[in-house]
Automatic annotation (TrEMBL), chains A, B, C, D, E, F:
It holds the Pfam family RNase_PH. Residues 10-140, 157-224 form the Exoribonuclease phosphorolytic domain. One of its GO terms (molecular function) is tRNA nucleotidyltransferase activity. One of its GO terms (biological process) is rRNA catabolic process. Belongs to the RNase PH family. Coiled coil: none annotated. It comes from Magnetovibrio blakemorei. Phosphorolytic 3'-5' exoribonuclease that plays an important role in tRNA 3'-end maturation. Removes nucleotide residues following the 3'-CCA terminus of tRNAs; can also add nucleotides to the ends of RNA molecules by using nucleoside diphosphates as substrates, but this may not be physiologically important. Probably plays a role in initiation of 16S rRNA degradation (leading to ribosome degradation) during starvation. Its EC number is 2.7.7.56. The keyword Acetylation does not apply. It comes from the Bacteria. The keyword S-adenosyl-L-methionine does not apply. This is Ribonuclease PH. Gene3D superfamilies: GHMP Kinase, N-terminal domain.
Length: 239, 239, 239, 239, 239, 239
């Protein structure tokens, strides 16, 4: 039924490759099928002005897409002179998701910025970004521990994200671009390793959907995030 | 328990005043307690370039806040030279919510832009905006019917929105600013008259929340939206 | 002779309502007929960098219009990414007018910003803004006195403004939009309670006008401003 | 009494040099003492979109200052990314002044843009710009006549401008920078050859001024503009 | 003598990988040691307005760097709202270099845009970009031939680029970042397969250099470009 | 053979006039035939933040063109809201050229900004700018010596620039606009008084050129710069 031939509850092949960006304190190239995102975390020993002097840290994210990551070339945002509303929405979402599992007090006055740059897009760039950004963040914090800046990695839990949607009235997991562009509903779930809810974004594309349908989507999301969390554990060699 | 003394499932006093903006094709001043939003709908007999020639219409929204709508003066976005990410996120949400209940095909090549300008803010500006924008949109479409541009109002259902949150670990309806700024979770529900889901946005502010808590919030939202939908019916004199 | 049926030297009904903006230190909703402007004054205990350390204060103003304040919707300046030349011209005028009656030395290092936002426009938005902004400024300074920040209100005089014009070769007072758009000359007078001149702006729209005509316009302005100053005295309960 | 030793009603030495800009259809380097402005008129056989198809023409102006035209270097507006409110105010004033003496209907669908660039500034740059821009405009229209595009020069009258002010409580003509920066009042008068009023801008710098003082300033302005109009006639060899 | 231990006339290991960007008509990931640039060519069957109707094509380029491509994170140009002078200089150079070997007349009304995005930077990003962009351009034109849009690939020659510099007074080939940041002179040579000169950019960093030194650098460049041109031939399987 | 009738190795008449800008610490109006550039140097006793505290100075340049300096009016960069890539490229080049002959250490914490504004353009504006900017810089530094801020002028050598090109396959010196727009190659040489190379920029406009042709161009450049350096010596009265 799905264009890719996947089962309704089947994710695309997911891979995580760490250390891709030589200069970054932590980095991860994440692939959800043909969606490829390079996540690079930068650690700085200073915080934004509005948080200064409180003894706590900050985690933020920026998001971008190479102009030809997509099927049709998009105008370069730097040339256009501003980031689109969509870009800003996504980078705010990534930042909030990461902060939800970080103990900012335990970080001290340190800031980590995770750049998520989409090298190739095939749907689900924001969920892949969150999932990969967590790995880059973890590695950057680990490097801070190694350099003696922190006693331990100040992360409370893992965080990962997946999209689910109604496609031809079926609840399906991890929409690719073909599915996404004709889905009746599109939802993104950001969940922790302990299955806590960090963010839910659900949108009816055409006509409203029901509470029952929503619960089906949430069940799929829990399955998908569990798989992603396990992959994060393996690559990060968490016990 | 709530700073305002409201019951957990009690909305603030809501009022709707139509015809507030003399020039607009439809307008509504909506108040959720001390949150006041002026919604003004503009009807134009042309559509954006990317939809032209398809015989269908478009509904969009813009959002703004007067600089001193808030407790501390915010920089004027026009002076700053750009709209914030938050502003863009909200106006995209309002537009999607309105389109979800509009039969764009039945509109013909006509565009309606609803301006939602916050005159005074005390939390819940986006949900008040959606609820009031629906009324302004309805009135503008009704004026198109009166002018013979349309045979009937091309709206499939009503749409309204409310925020719910976890405040001191209680699920509460319609957060005001005091509650919002210290809530553990903040969710916005955009629902139709028939209780279909149009948009769900849920954010854990501090630590993740559980699926059970989320279901409690959704129940409150259904109650709140039902009240709003009834107020819309009264002011619009729908049967 | 006038579209509104007013006498040549008759102003539109003017009303002033104070305390409209809950959060502002001083606020005033002023109406010149169908022109409605919300003036909100913000008091901050710091001054711009270029005046710092001189022990004196600063008063400034910003001006905006809701997109559908006018008959045809105007593009939102925040979306367009810049303030028009007209907007900047008007807000500079409001600021200069307010400073002309303020004893900046007596203010100490304190800044007041008055936001003038046009909710509905029917000609004369700049003159209504100045007249209302004075009231908001006065109230904000009075609140500073009440909070013990100042020994007394550091205002030397009142200030108010009115437009006059040549309409069908007659000198008329307080142009509304219909008159303004076909006037032969358009002038704005900013005068003090003591009838001192603060600002004069006169523009021939089509063909030049004579000195005699200009003197007629100035006489009308003095009459109009006297009425406005009296209304300010009443609402502010000045002896 | 004046720093320059001039009589109260004495202008600075004024010179006009035409043909300064090789490429422009009309050009004039105007000097009011140490204030030097290069005015260059460009003629194009097309009009802005909003006037197209009406068979009439348009005259507009742009204004700029070289960064080191002034005593202290100002930031380059092109580098800063926007024109200041002052710049926009002045270029709008120049454009209106020129249009007031132009028969736009008689121009046909043709646009003239006059660039006024201040090479050196010593007060009065806007009045020198208007006076010189008229000459450049006249020459550009004359070249259109020579090329057979127009039967005759579509100008109704001449236009020139001068500033007057209250300096140490004396009314003085043509303020230079030293006087301008400590004047009690600063006014600009744009008048025609026939002494009609095109624009009046008067500003009290510190405390309001009286109607009598204003009339004194207007008398000085009439004297000054008469001299400028005569110099324009000579350089343009008008009979 | 060189920090990397390379011989004076030795390039870093160079690799070219084609087909890296799934959606692009032609793509190449080029590596000059630790400098990695993704070049993606987009083919569109329309040309910019200023060239339209002349029956000829256009080739252009855009350049960007991921924020953490460098040792210290750079601000994202899209967030900053404009491209730096350096970015614009480089993308103009890449475009000119490609056009110098393209027969624009033979292309017909078709445009190719090559995006060069630096994934990781270690000096020489502009020369790697030009060398890789040629490959992407060639592939995109080849795909146009395959789709029947062109009879043959309209390229006159190959083009490649390399930097040379004076490092500790020695002429060295292909500067890496360490060398570049302390070089006495930095030159970039863009040469064709036939050793024709397309672009030369030479800059003395500290003190001027001599004509003899310049000739030494040009000799190194010819050697380096010859190697790059050979690698291009291999990957493109040119005879 | 040349449109102007000049010999292949003949420059246009060059003139230098100093003291043109009354307010600037050093200024020079330079003419290369019909190309006229006003160079004005501003001395400030502070340096940019990134160099502060190192005890050394900075020299930088900005470049602009009056809108009607050219045959067809160009849009004003201040109105357009940004400087073009070409403008930024040129001003960076001027700054680098001046710094190459300045002993920044000997300057102390002082900055000189040279504004190069093209009053009229006929090709070669960047080379005229560099040549004139050197004179303005020299004068500004001399004024610093006169004011006791520096013991001597911290310039190591003179610097001047000239363009050479291939025009109808002949190497010609100092291209004017007519030649420049149809040249096969265009090169700019920035050389010192001692004939050291500061910058070389060479571009093939159409088809690549050979090393021999490049050497011919460099020989012409050395001749041209020698003449310019001599003119600089005369105007600056260097022994």
């Amino acid at each position: 039924m799905r264009p890719s031939g996947r089962a309704l509850d089947q994710m695309r092949p997911v891979s995580l490759e760490i250390g891709f960006a030589k200069h970054a304190e932590g980095s991860c190239l994440i692939k959800f099928g043909d969606t490829h995102v390079l996540c690079a975390a930068t650690l700085e020993e200073r915080v934004p002005p509005w948080i200064r002097g409180q003894g706590k840290g900050w985690v933020t994210a920026e998001y971008g897409m190479l102009p030809r990551a997509t099927n049709t070339r998009m105008q370069r945002e730097a040339a256009r002179g501003k980031q689109s509303g969509r870009t800003q929405e996504i980078q705010r979402l990534i930042g909030r998701s990461l902060r939800a599992v970080t103990d900012l007090e335990a970080m001290g006055e340190m800031q980590i910025t995770v750049d998520c740059d989409v090298i190739q897009a095939d749907g689900g760039t924001r969920t892949a970004s969150i999932t990969g950004a967590y790995v880059a963040l973890h590695l950057a914090l680990r490097s801070a521990v190694e350099r003696g800046l922190l006693p331990s990695v100040p992360l409370i839990d893992q965080v990962a994200a997946v999209s689910c949607g109604l496609y031809k009235q079926n609840a399906v997991l991890d929409l690719d671009y073909l599915e996404d562009s004709s889905a009746e509903a599109d939802t993104n779930f950001v969940l922790t390793g302990a299955k806590g809810i960090v963010e839910i974004q659900g949108t009816a594309e055409d006509s409203p959907f029901s509470e029952d349908q929503f619960m089906e989507l949430m069940d799929l999301a829990k399955k998908g995030v569990a798989e992603l969390v396990e992959l994060q554990r393996q690559i990060l060699e968490l016990e």
